[in-house]
Amino acid sequence: MADDWRTTVADNADHAHGTQLTHFGYSEVGEAEKASRVAEMFACVASRYDLMNDLMTWGLHRGWKDEAVRMTGIGLGDRVLDLAGGTGDIAIRLAARVGQAGHVTLADINPAMLSEAQRRLTGHRHQGRISVVEADAEILPFSDAAFDAVIIGFGLRNVTYQAKALQEMYRVLKPGGRLVVLEFSRPVTWLVRPFYDAYSFAVIPALGRIVLQDPASYRYLAESIRMHPDRHALLRMLEGAGLESCWVRKMFFGIVAIHHGVKR
């Protein structure tokens, strides 16, 4: 099923949005319907998004994000794009690295998530270093070579045309800049898979029901991970977008993967 999805995306990557079919979890829907469903889902979970991340990963997402930020290689004075930046969890980490002379642009397509980011950043010591922008990953409103690094954390699988989004990330990177993609993947050993599947499809939706009265959004999470290209396929997608020095680091039995590429 996942291979069929990748073929569909590749075949239609240059088509205008409209009537093409894509996947929303295990369901096949029109592009506009997927965009609407994703928007509605994040609007529902925005207020407790960070709490749910802590609960369903046992707080491990914090370390994964720390490592992804480290892999951007950014330093003082750099300009960084945090794409699908949500509530600002990664942007705050980036701002601590770029210092007063640098700047972080937090971009997300969902207004509810951006409202949470604005609330979280109000009065924060890094507030002045972070701009919040509503933006579609497939049509970024930034000039060519605008950023020293681009990072997208747990957001790429929600994009309809991932190849197009990766091309846009490549475009806005400066030569020598790094792209880092932090995303869920698949366990590397069959011993882990039954436990991972049971946790994904039973425990996580149950947490969604208890915390948000919304198990459906977290069933979508489990399904979207399985429909997302695995780490090897995603690595080839980075290369297909023109990035070089591409490699991937597996974390937590391969359940999470951090992809890295450089624009030459």
Please describe what this structure looks like.
- With 264 residues, the protein is α/β, with parallel strands linked by helices.
- Helix content is 46%, strand content 22%.
- The protein has 10 helices and 9 strands.
- The longest helix has 20 residues, at 193-212.
- The protein is globular.
- Residues 1-18 have low confidence and may be disordered.
Structure annotation, total helices? 10
Number of strands: 9
> How many whole angstroms does the radius of gyration measure?
17 Å
Oligomer: single chain
Main β sheet profile: 7 strands, mixed
What's the level 1 CATH class? Alpha Beta
Fold-level CATH name: Rossmann fold
How many structural domains?
A: 1
Give the overall pLDDT as a whole number. Answer: 91
Q: Ends: how far apart?
A: 34 Å
User: Which CATH architecture?
Assistant: 3-Layer(aba) Sandwich
Q: How much helix, percentage-wise, in residues?
A: 40-55%
Please summarize what this structure is:
The protein is α/β, with parallel strands linked by helices. The chain has helices at 2-12, 31-45, 49-57, 61-71, 89-98, 111-121, 162-172, 193-212, 215-227, 231-240, and strands at residues 21-24, 27-30, 79-83, 103-108, 130-134, 147-153, 173-184, 244-251, 256-262. It is built from ten helices and nine strands.
